[in-house]
Specification:
This protein has helices spanning 3-47, 51-64, 69-82, 90-109, 114-126, 130-143, 148-161, 167-182, 187-199, 206-219, 224-240, 247-267, 273-289, 294-328. By secondary structure, it is mostly helical. Helix 8 runs antiparallel to helix 9 (187-199) and helix 12 runs antiparallel to helix 13. The longest helix is centred in the N-terminal third of the chain and has 45 residues, at 3-47. Residues 1-27 have low confidence and may be disordered.
């Protein structure tokens, strides 16, 4: 081919390549836009709790853009929402399989996405696959070792299985303690730790919980709710272990409970709950431990019960007024 003939050929070839390339890019752009359109529609359905409609739209979004990691994640979350743990039907099994497949795909695309890791771990958790769930939750801790919220997630996970595996009680406790080590001056860490000890089955560890409550009140001595929790802890031990404790032990616990509940009341006289628990304490413990003063304690219990009702009424009225003022604004 002569030089004169080559030039037109190259020009024509270049034009063809440009047109093909432009056509391909255009198609990609259109698919990208369609994928985003269906993804946004799916998100709207998801936030409205319309999970089956969300599933349809997420699947359409992935047809147009198969690299949308969040579409896989929320497709899995949508199937997870309509999955019912423990229901052994074919439809329910398929929902579980589809949820797991979508979340595994999201994890494959973006293995360092904390939200994806958590979603997949949660699905394994719902399926009772402890080992796979644990791997993923621990990976989150490795990725973000200074994020205190992650320790609560793992601690709660261990706590759910502690009834089946005794050694997990210690693992859960260690997670709460590691959270406290990260920020020992934060009272919330001690609040969560005390709740953990008090929720242990078959028997709560009241004294470890009380130690945690004690540290919390040292950090926030003006918090009425902290003193309330501390008082309820001592009442719980005196009442629930009444057949195991001596009369003197129960009396000592009741006195500490009374002091804490009255401290909560002193800090916030408008707080209804201390009145309620004082009433319970006087009737269920002190009136029984000191029978010669039973009539007096029962009268005081009735008085505190009445004060509780009055405080709750005032609380309801304040709330109503606040809502009315918001409506005016």
């Amino acid at each position: 081919m002569s030089r004169k003939g080559v030039a037109p050929f190259l020009i024509t070839l270049g034009l063809l390549i440009f047109l093909v390339s432009w056509s391909g890019c255009s198609k990609l752009n259109v698919n990208y836009l369609k994928g985003n359109y269906h993804f946004n529609r799916a998100n709207h359905h998801f936030t409205e709790g319309l999970y089956r409609k969300a599933i349809e739209e997420y699947e359409l979004a992935l047809q147009f853009n198969p690299n949308l990691v969040d579409a896989y994640r929320f497709l899995g979350e949508s199937y997870k929402q309509i999955y019912k743990p423990g229901v052994d039907t074919e439809d329910n099994k398929q929902r579980a399989e589809k949820a797991l497949a979508a979340l595994q795909k999201a994890y494959e695309i973006d293995p360092n996405n904390k939200d994806v890791i958590y979603s997949l771990g949660d699905m394994y958790d719902k399926l009772g696959n402890f080992e796979e769930a644990e791997k993923l939750y621990l990976k989150i801790l490795e990725m973000e070792p200074t994020n205190m919220a992650n320790y609560y997630v793992v601690a709660e996970f261990y706590k759910r299985y502690a009834g089946e595996k005794e050694e997990l009680k210690e693992k859960a406790e260690q997670m709460y303690l590691r959270r406290i080590e990260l920020d020992p001056e934060n009272p919330q860490g001690y609040a969560y730790l005390s709740q953990y000890y008090e929720s242990l089955q078959p028997a709560p560890d009241f004294d470890k919980a009380f130690d945690a409550h004690d540290k919390r009140t040292l950090l926030e001595p003006d918090n009425a709710a902290a003193w309330l929790s501390k008082g309820v802890n001592r009442w719980s031990k005196a009442y629930r272990l009444q057949n195991q404790l001596s009369r003197q032990e129960r009396l000592e616990l009741a006195k500490v409970s009374e002091e804490c509940l009255k401290k909560a009341n002193e800090l916030d006289p408008q707080y209804p709950e201390p009145y309620s628990w004082l009433s319970v304490l006087y009737k269920s413990v002190l009136a029984k431990v000191i029978p010669e003063r039973a009539k007096r304690y029962e009268q005081e219990a009735d008085m505190y019960a009445e004060k509780f009702k009055e405080a709750r009424q005032r609380q309801a009225e304040r709330k109503k007024l606040e809502e009315e003022l918001k409506g005016i604004k």
